[in-house]
Amino acid sequence: MKKLLAVFGLLAMLSGLVVEPASAFANGDPVTYTQTITTPANPAGNFSGSSGLDTWGIAVDDGKVYGISHLVPAVSPFKIEITCQEVSSGATCTDGTWPLTVNDYAAASYHPYFLIDDLHHMWIIARDGTHPNWNYYGLCIDLTNTASPICGNVNFATIDATTLGMNLNSFRTSQAIVNGTKLYQIMPTTSPNLPIIYCFDTATQLACPSQPYRISQSSLTHTSGTDGYWVFKLVDERIYGVYGSKIVCFDTTTAAECSGSWPVAETWGTYTFRQYAEGPNSTVSENGLTYFLPYLESNGDVSGVCYSKAATDEWVCRDNSGTLIATPSGINSAIPAGVNEHCVASAITNYNGNVGMTRTPCTQSTSLGEPINFGTRAYINVFSDFVPGTWNGNNYAFERGQIKCFDFASNSACAGFSNELTEMNIPYTLFQDPNNPTCIWANGDSGTGQTQNFDAYSGGTCGESGSRILASSYIEGGSTCAPTSYGTLTINSPTDYATAKVTLVDASGQTLGIAQQTFNGSREVDLSGLTIPHTAGHLPQFIVELKDGNGDLINSAIEMSLSWEGSYDSSCVANGQTAVASSGGNGGGGGGGGNNSGEITSDDEITVDKGDLSILTVETDVNNPTWSITGGANKAKFKITSDGKLRFKKTVPVGDYVVKVKAKHGSTVATQTITVHVVDNGDPVVPGDEVKINMVHF
């Protein structure tokens, strides 16, 4: 076995740059592009489960769905309760003690969000102490070790609640927000009467530089709505919120207030509202029920924000500077801003002996969670009506929810999309699946469907018709990289299926009128003779259906290659795409039998010290190869570029990592299994050692 002879491209520690070899093509030359991508298996299409606790934010990691109870104790004894369900079934996880209780800490927010890193560590801003003295921690919880779960606790802020004017229950009106590797905690204060934002960076495991941050422009007065700080939301890279009469904006990229005219004054009305079916009606200001959507351009870029005004049943949109812009005319019919949703509900009376539990006519209230944007679409969950139901054997008034979707490109409700959050009481939050971006998760207060997922285009269950694969995930955005025609679509793996077919739909998931195509014996579909959209922003989707011998749908990860013709530009090969001289035909990207053998000539076993920023350049005798990762126990942790540079996607702990790579051109194929040993300064690998290496990821 060849060992320790690999060629490394060492990077500057601060720049993180790779010097790419000069291209053999000039911009504009006709080329055939090829890209290979692995699409993970879909979550269980019938996932509809209950965690048993009233969880708020959720996250998906390593085949599991995690949540944290938002019923946070205000005073000691503190605890954090974490739920875990299997993505494959919705059942409670069995590899540990679940729900998991972490004692001596409480989530800093009554509405907790969290993130999970590549080591399966959950990070949350937690607190301890007794009012008026609170300590904020970046708390690390090891989800793989429920017996001893705390893996770090960084005290990054100490709060004098009396000086800041926070009362004992201020955490109930606080808001937790996650963006990238950073956790934010927004707290109301009265001295001065301004929001204060605490920030912890999980990448450095330190407080964010110069935090806490103040939104200090102009004079602001906080007026709580139904629960005050639910109205602070993350939209793209910005945190928007309502503070008194004003819309405020904080830019997470600059760690400062948004530039321009922010905060902006707004006029708010009042209306009668009942937050819970069992509760009394209240007259509230509409600013406590505002929800936000990103303003999306035709290419999916976020260029502003839109927010609802319930009392006047209207949406208002502003650009990134805070200047008023035209509100899309179709937005209010797609997502009503007002509380009157045009639906019909029966009166709910005398439930559990409570004669006062009556709710008619049907009404809509606020969205509690943050919006999700995907392409030119924006999604939000809203209350829609109250319906009779049962929970834990008792009669109950369910506050049913819906997912609303608005497409900025069509200025209308998303075509073909419909979703009622059945069996979910009080919809809370949405979460985009990190492995399947067209699959969105919803979470609520309770119900047998407390947690569920849905397809972003149909609103049905994820993967119900096969794997939805976007051509835009293969082809770089913008008109420069748009294809002039398509070549082949090839299944590289799996190969153990009985039949494979693909349905082609447009960018919004609607039919193209093209008959379903069948993959041939070489696992290819020839796309060249089909009329398929190829302009930027309108690239098609492929719904790939693999079936076994019984005709049942196979839910599996799928590695596919797509080839297309286009004009060369270096920006079009930025993420692993390859380019070869165009032959004037269908181009490369094929697969199947009749392959010739090539050889990968670089080393198949290497050792990397945790201090290196290193890239292994994989070498082969295959001419102009298309590189891909095809297997290995740790393949999900690696990525390979168009010129054979193999890198980790993220930092990893000390250990051994195995990946299989493939070089292919035409019918010539070479494969190699590579083992990467990550060590600590040359010392032997210690199982469980979590010393990280800083390998550049992209």
Explain the overall architecture.
By secondary structure, this protein is mostly beta strands. Helix content is 1%, strand content 41%. The chain has two helices and 51 strands. It has a five-stranded antiparallel β-sheet, with no helix packed on it. Strands 7, 8, 9, 10 and 11 form a five-stranded antiparallel β-sheet that branches. Strands 12, 13, 14, 15 and 16 form a five-stranded antiparallel β-sheet that branches. Strand 13 (182-187) and strand 14 (196-201) form a beta hairpin. The longest helix is centred in the first third of the chain and has 4 residues, at 161-164. The model is unreliable at 1-22, 218-229, 274-282, 340-365, 585-596 and 684-698 (pLDDT under 50).
